[in-house]
Amino acid sequence: MQITDIRIRKLEKEGKMKAVVSVTFDDEFVVHDIKVLAGDSGLFIAMPSRRGSDGDYRDIAHPIEQNFRKELQTKILEKYKEKYGES
Fold this sequence. Notes:
Layout: E1 3-10, E2 17-25, E3 29-39, E4 42-46, E5 49-51, E6 57-59, H1 66-84
Antiparallel strand pairs: 1-2, 2-3, 3-4, 5-6
């Protein structure tokens, strides 16, 4: 599975959430609402999630393999920094 498109919508408000991302795979499948967040050690991504009846958030979609998660995060953050020049 190849990442074929990354679209980033930067958020203008102050806070930890910097952008919302849509990623297309193989020009056939898209995942919306991946978040770019600022943490203590820099930027990272959080997968789309939904609040359950118990109040906890659970990912709706997420990578199973750690290597793919790392690749996805790297590509999203590279595109974010290229477009907005932030880290």
